[in-house]
Every structure is written in C-alpha cells, then in structure tokens.
Automatic annotation (TrEMBL):
<dbReference type="GO" id="GO:0005975">
    <property type="term" value="P:carbohydrate metabolic process"/>
</dbReference>
<dbReference type="InterPro" id="IPR008928">
    <property type="entry name" value="6-hairpin_glycosidase_sf"/>
</dbReference>
<comment type="similarity">
    <text>Belongs to the N-acylglucosamine 2-epimerase family.</text>
</comment>
<dbReference type="Pfam" id="PF07221">
    <property type="entry name" value="GlcNAc_2-epim"/>
</dbReference>
<dbReference type="InterPro" id="IPR012341">
    <property type="entry name" value="6hp_glycosidase-like_sf"/>
</dbReference>
<dbReference type="InterPro" id="IPR010819">
    <property type="entry name" value="AGE/CE"/>
</dbReference>
<dbReference type="GO" id="GO:0016853">
    <property type="term" value="F:isomerase activity"/>
</dbReference>
<protein>
    <recommendedName>
        <fullName>N-acylglucosamine 2-epimerase</fullName>
    </recommendedName>
</protein>
<keyword id="KW-0413">Isomerase</keyword>
Length: 416
C-alpha cells in the first residue's frame, strides 16, 4: 500500500510542479486573487442595496432564487469579508454592514439568553421550535472574526451575550460537552449529541474568540478544555479508523444491535478533527500531557486517513470521495465536496511539513476543480470524474465564503 502510494505521489508531484496554478505568481497574490473571485461572486450577484446585506440563496450562474437571508451564510460572509480586508480594505465596510443587519434582524432574545434566528425573509424571522448547535455556533463565527480584525467595543458585548446564551442552552451539566439540539419549550434534546456538537462550536467561533478577546479568555477556556477532552476520548474510533459522528447521551458512539456503527462518515470530518487536535496541542492553558496526546492523535488520524482507499482511481491528485460506511469503508457517495478538501488542506498545513507535497496536490486539485472560472464563485460538489455539479446552489443556508477563506487563513499562517 505504501509503495503504491509513494509511486503515485512522485508521479503526481512531477505534474504538480509543472502545472500548479500559482507558478507565475506569489502565494500571497494567488490567495488574494482566489479570495477576491469568491467574494466578488456574492458582491456582484447577491448584494441588496435596500437591505444592505447579501441574499443567501444564489444559483450556479448567480441568480438570486429567494429573499431569504440565512444566519450561517451571512455570518460566514462576515468572516470572509473581515479576513479579506487585508487584501481590500473596502471589504471591511461590507462586513460591518452585514454585521449590522445580523444584529438587527437575525438575533433574538428569551429567558435563556440571546440566540440566532435561522433566517429572515422580507425582514421577518422564520419560526423555529428547535435551535441546533450548528446554526447557533456559526451565528458567532463572523462577528468573532470581525472583532478579531477591528476590536470594535460595540461588537464584544453582543458576542458575550450570544456566547452566554449558547452555553446556557446547549451545555450538558451532567455529562459535560454540548447537546446538538435545544427545544425552546422543553430544553436540551436527548439523542442529539454528535461529533459536530463538540467540534463545531470550537472551530466556528470559540477558539477564534478566545484568541481575539484576550482580556476575557476565561469565558471560553473551560468549555474548550471540556470539549477537547471528550473529542479525544470519544471522537476517534481506533477500530474503524473513522470518526464517531453520532453519539449517545453519555458520549459513546451510536451502534446497531450487532455492534456496528449506526451512521455514515466523511473524510472531511477525519481531517477536521485532526486539525483541531493539532491546533489544541499549542494551547497554553492545557497541560503538557494533554498537548502531547492531542498532537499524537491528530497526526495519527492524518497518517491513517491518507492511507485509506479514499481517492478516485487511487490517485491523490484526483481528490477523495465524500461519504463512507465506517464499518466496511465502502464508498456511499462518490462525489467530491469542496469543504472536505478545504479541511484536508488545513489539517496537512498543521502537520509541521511532513505532508507538504500532499497538501500542494490537494491545493491544486481544490482550485482547479471547485473554482468556477466562468461565472465566479465555487461549486459545492464535483462528480467522481471532476465535472462540476451545477444543480447545487453556490449560495445556500450554509454556503458563502467561509471554508475556502478559512483555509487561506491557515495557509497564510494567520491562526492559533
């Protein structure tokens, strides 16, 4: 397996060195250009002068297909615009405008504290009986990055209120960690815990806010520690060599009667967990033992995942499939997904140079496959043969600018 892999890699690298898209420009200019073309797709097609924000649902060619403005999509735009202001200062004004819209229309309040509406349409919030950890965590994503860039004192109190409401609703006071859903009427939802309910709050905003809000780091550190400990113990399955995606209320993985895993898995979540653990190995508020454990497991997950039969025709330059059965490692979805490859690139960038060649190949694949050079923006999916799937929206409830610009942030070493 390793000999075959190395042969394929060497052959691929010869191709890479001759055809990498940024051969003629510096990395800095290349990443700036890719950031600009992604943001410009939304700027050209989705901006509303009337609302002073971006519509969220945009088709392949740039047509707005609804009046909805989603919290996650908007928050991820704020993140992208805020970070990209280093390349174009005018982006910061747009980030502030979208943040103003979010504060005015997409944030609610109840006895349990502040929370995010899923969306607004015609400036009316959509009704929701349940709050899910994904949308609530990413509701803080953009504002956290905006604060990191500006240290705007008006933004910080809102972040504190949203964070407090988030912890009040989702934290499990008995078993630790965070529930995946919260019912507005009855409270936390049993059976809703998952890898994502532990991981997404940290990657979406909590670590970024810990970095930016240095005077109040104690607000975040205990929850970061708790989630990392649970991820270390329950997030990785050494038998299946996949992540445990669905978890019981006691954090054990959900299994069928025969003991097999009762969920599907993605390669992207393997890489996302490894990246988080590698980041955690540098956190000063953790013990030396914890940091060593997290680094070791983060590296192990990458080592194992790269040796799996995940690549189209077994070649790394062809990208990897989207979804697998963890019990058999059989492919369940042979499409390729933009966000999963972004997570892979982030993870490899954190492995201290061991997989630089593989990362470069993933980068080349990512920008050649998912960036749309005709209409702008990027595709969500490509087929197994790398044909763009144009029926999937380029702008949706959760898709705008986040994963790609987050990846560029790591590649430019602007992270903790």
């Amino acid at each position: 397996m390793k000999i075959k892999y190395c042969t394929i890699l060497l052959t691929s690298l010869l191709f890479f060195r001759c055809s990498k898209p940024d051969n003629k420009v510096s990395d800095k200019d290349f990443y700036r250009n890719e950031t600009k073309q992604l943001i410009d797709f939304f700027e050209k097609n989705a901006w509303s002068n009337e609302l002073e924000t971006y519509y969220s649902e945009i088709d392949n060619e740039g047509k707005v297909i609804s009046d909805k403005v989603y919290t996650v999509a908007s928050s991820r735009l704020i993140y992208g615009l805020s970070f990209a202001s280093r390349y174009n200062p005018s982006y910061l004004n747009k980030a502030k405008a979208v943040a103003t819209f979010q504060k005015k229309h997409l944030i609610g309040n109840s006895k349990a504290g502040y929370y995010s509406h899923s969306f607004v349409e015609n400036q009316k919030a959509g009704g929701q009986n349940k709050l899910d950890v994904w949308q609530q965590a990413y509701g803080l994503c953009g504002l956290s990055e905006l604060y990191r860039q500006t240290h705007d004192l008006e933004t910080l109190p809102i972040l504190h209120q949203l964070h407090k409401g988030f912890i009040t609703r989702f934290r499990d006071k008995e078993a630790g960690g965070l529930w995946g859903e919260y019912n507005i009427e009855s409270g936390p939802v049993s059976g809703s815990k998952s890898l994502q309910s532990l991981m997404y709050p940290l990657t979406a905003y909590m670590i970024n806010l810990w970095e930016a809000d240095q005077e109040n780091r104690a607000f975040y550190e205990n929850q970061i520690k708790e989630n990392l400990d649970l991820l270390y113990r329950y997030g990785w399955n050494s038998k299946t060599e996949w992540v445990n995606v669905q978890l019981n209320d006691d954090w054990t993985p959900k299994v069928k009667e025969d003991g097999s895993m009762n969920f599907s898995v993605t390669v992207g979540h393997n890489f996302q967990l490894s990246a988080l653990l590698l980041r955690a190995s540098k956190f000063p508020f953790l013990s030396v033992e914890q940091k060593e454990n997290y680094e070791r497991l983060g590296q192990e997950i990458i080592d194992i995942t790269l040796q799996k039969n995940i690549f189209h025709h077994g070649k790394i330059q062809n990208g990897f499939y989207s979804e697998f059965n963890p019990n058999t490692s059989k492919v369940l979805d042979d499409r390729k997904t933009w966000w999963q490859h972004a997570e892979a690139i982030i993870a490899l960038s954190l492995y201290e140079g061991k997989y630089d060649d593989e990362r470069h190949l993933f980068e080349q694949y990512f920008f050649n496959t998912f960036a749309d050079r005709k209409y702008g923006g990027e595709y969500f999916y490509a087929s197994k043969d790398d044909q763009p799937i144009t029926s999937e929206l380029k702008g949706s409830i959760g898709k705008s600018t986040y994963h790609t610009i987050e990846m560029i942030r790591f590649l430019t070493r602007d992270h903790k």
